């Protein structure tokens, strides 16, 4: 069902500090910070040859990652995003097998403009899984 890993998202208290660590200590190629108010996050994309890493800082008071950072004040791995060819059939198969989809199960438009869904971490070894329908 799952395809490539699209990105691994890391919640951080401050993307500029985090991006300087990735750039200066790891020699990583980092984008400039981008605000995504509709998702409540400020993002820096770290480009690697085989996958993207996203550093996410909470943006606004209702940020969906605020409570994660309350529990993990230094930051931490927030989710893994896998690409799927057909998000509705992936969802239906997962639900049929007992996995829990967050929210009402309707795909939302994700940070890259594609439909996304999140799967409950308790059903996946403590890891929040994002599914993103990627065309082509
Ligand atoms: Co994501």
Report on the architecture of this protein.
- This protein has a single domain (5-133), classed as 2,3-Dihydroxybiphenyl 1,2-Dioxygenase, domain 1 (Roll), CATH 3.10.180.
- The chain has 3 helices and 9 strands, in the order E-H-E-E-E-E-H-E-H-E-E-E.
- The protein has helices spanning 15-26, 66-71, 87-96; strands spanning 5-11, 29-30, 34-36, 41-47, 52-58, 76-84, 108-109, 115-119, 128-133.
- The longest helix is centred in the N-terminal third of the chain and has 12 residues, at 15-26.
- Cobalt (II) ion is lined by residues 7, 9, 79, 81, 111, 130.
Give the biggest beta sheet: 9 strands, mixed
User: Helices and strands: which structural class?
Assistant: alpha+beta
**Order of H and E elements:** EHEEEEHEHEEE
Give the number of domains: 1
Main CATH class: Alpha Beta
Q: What is the overall shape?
A: globular
Strand content: 35-45%
Q: Which ligands appear in the coordinates?
A: cobalt (II) ion
What's the gyration radius in Å?
A: 15 Å
Indicate the mean pLDDT.
95
CATH topology: 2,3-Dihydroxybiphenyl 1,2-Dioxygenase, domain 1
- Total helices: the number is 3
Unreliable residue stretches: none
Strand runs, count: 9
Oligomer: single chain
Tell me the helix content.
10-25%
CATH superfamily: 2,3-Dihydroxybiphenyl 1,2-Dioxygenase, domain 1
